[in-house]
């Protein structure tokens, strides 16, 4: 088990210089009541099953296991719709310590771009790139699990 | 992924000769809406995470992955109560082909004993030992996932 501490921000697409290479990620969530999220993720020729405990602040328990890609594809059939389809870019932070994971969403979440940074403690400092927008760490709208139920295209007008 | 086909019976404890050695099994279920069950199981020094699709007749899709024992213990904290505590006995069937898995339950399911046989097809023949009782394959009461929510001790009078 790992404890995941991360902060999440919107990205100003005009200022963000998109790297050539990204990782295409497909992921889905098995339905549950939210005590523990069960995520199926495929990245190219790798796949993972991840269990995530309820979020406490910006920290959550996470259990991740590699699974066969074929299993992931079959498990997607059991996941709620829409599946999450995004390209992930890894951007080394200027502080030389952290790495930004920038996700550009497609499909029903097209238009959304989110940057995440993983921290070792909740109050750890990190450098902020110029393309970093509003922080959305605590906002459930931006949880990938919620984007798989209420995608961006459906709530554009609410925010 | 495997397709699991199994038939399940009550056991006549008076006729059943309990082997000396059994496998103590502790298992729990992460809450979910039933589309897919997520089971955590520990057997001695081994542990598994298992996803089971909705039952169709006596067949269901099953995905099983070994996980660290420490993870299993932590995941039990997220499982609904009571956890399933049972000893499993493996009894070779007289037909020389099948193996009976006989589970003797403890805790809130004390008094219950269930035998299961795994088959390759739904109509496959198998030999029936003398201690085999009533078939309960289709009865949701006897699903381990339901015994973890409505244990035997609570429904003795209903059956």
What do you see in this structure?
The structure is a homodimer of 159-residue chains. Chain A has one domain: Hypothetical Protein Pfu-838710-001 (Beta Barrel). Chain A is globular and about 40 Å long. The termini of chain A are far apart. With 159 residues, chain A is mostly beta strands. Helix content of chain A is 10%, strand content 43%. The model of chain A has no long low-confidence stretch (mean pLDDT 90).
Structure in a nutshell:
Chains A, B: InterPro entries: CYTH-like_dom_sf, CYTH_domain, NeuTTM/CthTTM-like. Chain A is mainly β and 159 residues long.
List the topology elements.
The structure is a homodimer of 159-residue chains.
Chain A: E1 2-11, E2 23-30, E3 36-43, E4 46-53, E5 59-66, H1 69-76, E6 84-92, E7 99-105, E8 113-118, E9 132-135, H2 144-147, H3 152-155
Antiparallel strand pairs in A: 1-5, 1-8, 1-9, 2-3, 2-6, 3-4, 4-5, 6-7, 7-8
Pfam family, one (chains A, B): CYTH
Protein name (chains A, B): Adenylate cyclase
Active site (chains A, B): 29
CATH superfamily of chain A: Hypothetical Protein Pfu-838710-001
Low-confidence stretches of chain A: none
Rounded mean pLDDT score of chain A: 90
Could you name the CATH topology of chain A? Answer: Hypothetical Protein Pfu-838710-001
What are the secondary-structure elements of chain A, in order, as H or E?
Answer: EEEEEHEEEEHH
Fraction of residues in helix of chain A: 10-25%
Shape of chain A: globular
**Order of adjacent strands in the largest pleated sheet of chain A:** 1-5-4-3-2-6-7-8
**Main sheet properties of chain A:** 8 strands, antiparallel, barrel
Number of helices of chain A: 3
CATH architecture name of chain A? Beta Barrel
Q: Note the quaternary state here.
A: homodimer
Question: Which structural class fits the helix and strand makeup of chain A?
Answer: mainly beta
Measured distance between first and last alpha carbons of chain A: 35 Å
């Amino acid at each position: 088990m790992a404890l995941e501490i991360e902060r999440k921000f919107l990205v100003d697409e005009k200022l963000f210089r998109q790297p050539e290479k990204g990782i295409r990620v497909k992921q889905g969530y098995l339905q549950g009541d939210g005590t523990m999220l069960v995520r199926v993720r495929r990245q190219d020729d790798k796949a993972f099953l991840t269990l995530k405990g309820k979020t406490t602040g910006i920290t959550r328990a996470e259990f991740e296991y590699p699974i066969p890609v074929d299993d992931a594809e079959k498990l997607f059939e059991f996941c709620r719709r829409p599946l999450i389809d995004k390209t992930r870019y890894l951007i080394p932070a200027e502080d030389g310590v952290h790495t930004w994971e920038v996700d550009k969403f497609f499909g029903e979440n097209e238009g959304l771009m989110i940057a995440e940074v993983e921290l070792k403690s909740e109050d750890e400092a990190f450098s902020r790139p110029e393309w970093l927008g509003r922080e959305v760490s605590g906002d459930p709208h931006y949880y990938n699990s919620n984007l798989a139920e209420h995608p961006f295209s459906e709530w554009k007008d609410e925010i």
